[in-house]
């Protein structure tokens, strides 16, 4: 406050150093005055009459308030990078999760835990077997997550302004996450079908093109969206829980909403674990619809499992209530680092892109 009083005096009396003022303070005031006068001359602003606002030089730009006109692009780029990295890093665990959710697995594909499964897959099927289908997953994850994060950020702000102006609304966060899921799953579902069929034990598909061609010729284009309703039924509550938990934890760990990697990692990991455990039964049904597991089909009188009700009924007929929680360990283990990676990478690239935009605008 002492500097602000001297700044006001400097405006009236000129930039000369006054008594008791250090050279550093004089230089700081000169800079404020020059910027204020420049604004007043160029835009009619009475810049010299406004008290200077002190800002922490280490705080960086407010990356939550992105530059006008660049918001959607920034969110889409950051989201695409985060989605691709998340799926690529965690893909081997995702392969194990798919196999552990099998209702009637081959005796050679019965695993006690994630580490044992990875070791046996690599030892008996080759080093790169857990990575089969990664290319189609990465191809789908980029645009899916770009739409996902851009839609979420836009709707979160719009709904929060309506529900709780000037604050954060958990209802807005959950609703934005649900709507964003519609776009994400529409882009990602075909890739999920191909990926999971290539991940299954004794899968006849070695290349993505072989799998796509076989599904298209034998089951039609609708097979790529057979699990879409179940996917939405799973992901809508998953994302609602996920986003609400993440934003709730951010309010406690990062109330100023600055770029804080540790808070993003911790909040993302906890949010992913809670949402994953709660929606495991729906994920088991989604896997069954995507893979059309041959042994499970024998217990279904229709020949093909279509729709969520049919999937739920088949899961219960084959394995009872416990079958709904097959692979829950792998799912939670997958989701904890997965959401931690997604949020930390997303927030980092959002911060980085915003900072570069601010530097570019300042240099113009």
How would you describe what is shown here?
The protein has 364 residues and is mainly alpha-helical. It has a domain of 100 residues. Helix content is 70%, strand content 0%. The protein is built from 14 helices and no strands. The radius of gyration is 27 Å and the shape is globular. The N terminus is likely disordered.
Radius of gyration: 27 Å
Number of helical segments with 4 or more residues: 14
**Which oligomeric form is depicted?**
single chain
Structural class: mainly alpha
* Overall pLDDT score: 79
Biggest sheet overview: none
What separation lies between the terminal Cα atoms?
31 Å
User: SSE order, as H and E?
Assistant: HHHHHHHHHHHHHH
Relative helix content: 55-70%
Taking pLDDT < 50 over at least 5 consecutive residues as the criterion, the unreliable ranges are 1-21, 31-70
Q: Please provide the count of β strands.
A: 0
**Shape category:** globular
Strand content: under 5%
């Amino acid at each position: 406050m002492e500097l602000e009083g001297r700044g006001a005096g400097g405006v009236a009396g000129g930039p000369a150093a006054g008594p008791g003022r250090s050279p550093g303070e004089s230089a700081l005031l000169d800079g404020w005055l020059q910027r204020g006068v420049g604004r007043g001359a160029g835009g009619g602003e009475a810049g010299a009459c406004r008290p200077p606002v002190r800002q922490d030089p280490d705080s960086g730009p407010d990356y939550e308030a992105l530059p006008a006109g660049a918001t959607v692009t920034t969110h889409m780029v950051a989201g695409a990078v985060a989605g691709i990295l998340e799926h690529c890093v965690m893909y081997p665990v995702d392969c194990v999760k798919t196999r552990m959710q099998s209702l009637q697995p081959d005796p050679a594909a019965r695993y006690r835990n994630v580490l044992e499964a990875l070791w046996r897959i690599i030892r008996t099927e080759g080093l790169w077997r857990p990575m089969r289908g990664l290319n189609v997953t990465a191809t789908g994850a980029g645009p899916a997550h770009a739409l996902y994060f851009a839609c979420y950020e836009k709707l979160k702000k719009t709904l929060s302004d309506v529900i709780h102006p000037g604050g954060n609304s958990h209802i807005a966060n959950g609703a934005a996450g649900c709507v964003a899921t519609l776009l994400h799953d529409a882009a990602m579902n075909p890739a999920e079908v191909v990926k999971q069929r290539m991940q299954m034990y004794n899968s006849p598909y070695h290349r993505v093109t072989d799998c796509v061609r076989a599904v298209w010729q034998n089951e039609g284009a609708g097979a790529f969206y057979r699990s879409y309703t179940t996917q939405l039924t799973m992901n809508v509550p998953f994302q609602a829980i996920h986003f609400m938990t993440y934003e709730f934890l951010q309010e406690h760990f990062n109330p100023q909403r600055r770029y804080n990697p540790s808070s993003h990692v911790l909040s993302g990991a906890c949010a992913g674990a809670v949402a994953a455990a709660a929606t495991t039964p729906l994920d088991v049904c989604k896997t069954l619809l995507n893979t059309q597991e041959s042994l499970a089909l024998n217990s279904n009188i229709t020949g093909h499992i279509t729709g969520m009700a049919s999937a739920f009924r088949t899961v219960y007929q084959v394995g009872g209530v416990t079958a709904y929680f097959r692979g829950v360990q792998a799912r939670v283990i997958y989701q904890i680092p997965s959401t931690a990676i997604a949020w930390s990478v997303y927030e980092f690239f959002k911060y980085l892109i915003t900072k570069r935009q601010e530097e570019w605008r300042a240099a113009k």
